[in-house]
Amino acid sequence: MKTIINTPDAPAPIGPYSQAVLSGNTLYTSGQIALHPKTGELITGDITSETKQVMENMKAVLAAAGMTFENVIKASIFVSDMGNFAEINSVYGSYFDESTAPARETVEVANLPKYVNVEISMIAVK
């Protein structure tokens, strides 16, 4: 059985997908970009602010499922420029305890939705 997770505290889906799907005890999130959930404004002034908005969106999705970053077991980070890795990693890392951080991959891609610089998705378990 699957449960669709939806919260107004993260950007609404702009296509045929859900913010997240809970299957049993496992949560699969869609990728989050730096859209402000209330204004719809795209936050792209600098990579630190952009990544922080992505992580805040993800925090809201996790909370809607009754979870936190402590529940995350896997993260996927997609970046448009690996040159931004250090700044992205610094913001991302501030949301986790390094000793219990999830598995992760970071992949440079040619383009991302709305031509953002970073998109992150996660898998979490209760």
UniProtKB/TrEMBL annotation:
Protein family per UniProt: Belongs to the RutC family.
Pfam families xref list: Ribonuc_L-PSP
GO CC annotation: cytosol
Name assigned to this protein: 2-iminobutanoate/2-iminopropanoate deaminase
InterPro entries: RidA, RutC-like_sf, YjgF/YER057c/UK114
Biological classification of the source: Bacteria, Pseudomonadati, Bacteroidota, Flavobacteriia, Flavobacteriales
GO molecular function: deaminase activity
Coiled coil start-end: none
